[in-house]
Amino acid sequence: MFGTAAAFALFWAMAFPAQADVTGEPVTYEAAAAQSWGAEETAPTNEGSNDGMAVELTSEQQALMDGDARWNASARLYHAGGGGATGNDSLGCRPVAMRTVAVDPRYIPRRSVLFIRETVGLRLADGTLHDGYWYASDTGGAIKGQKVDLFTGHGRGSMQPAMRLNMRTLTIADAGRFEGCPPDWDDTPSRNAPLMAAASPRATGASN
């Protein structure tokens, strides 16, 4: 009667016949495990990145991509909760994750619609892709000159998709002006759409 180890070795040889040694004898489980036979490789992910990702641009986006940058600014990330930002932005609006930008209004006027090239195609936590549009609706005492703070949402975990932008100098085009508060994303954005329909900026005249 086979022992447990011998029975398992026989089962392993029958399940993976190509994994016998050159003599045709079955190999032990320990030997097979050491060789990682039968192991499946986990595919890498690039969440929070647009590296190598082709994004279909509208004619407006393409023009903003190809045109001259109006501003260059070093980016920082900020979030709500856990010691992060609280309350409304400097316009009295609720900050919108991955939309609201805090600026120095002496450098970038509030109510500017900003097109940040480095964020186009950025894969967000829910699988949607960023269209590049942000809204200068917040300010901060530590934001001086060529600096911007990007609002990522609630909690430190919300910063993960945009972490590669932190401390990076961003290329920012002037995409117009907006009235009222920054628009939110669609309630149910399509995970398969290359760009989100609700992200179209409201570019109209307004005062700072």
Please provide a written account of the structure.
With 208 residues, the protein is α/β, with parallel strands linked by helices. It contains three helices and six strands; from the N terminus they run H-H-H-E-E-E-E-E-E. Strands 1-5-2-4-3-6 form a six-stranded mixed barrel. The longest helix has 12 residues. It starts with a helix and ends in a 31-residue tail after the last strand. 30% of the residues are buried. The C terminus is likely disordered.
Task: Please specify the SSE layout and strand pairing.
Layout: H1 4-15, H2 29-34, H3 59-66, E1 71-80, E2 100-103, E3 112-116, E4 133-138, E5 147-154, E6 169-177
Parallel strand pairs: 1-5, 2-4
Antiparallel strand pairs: 1-6, 2-5, 3-4, 3-6
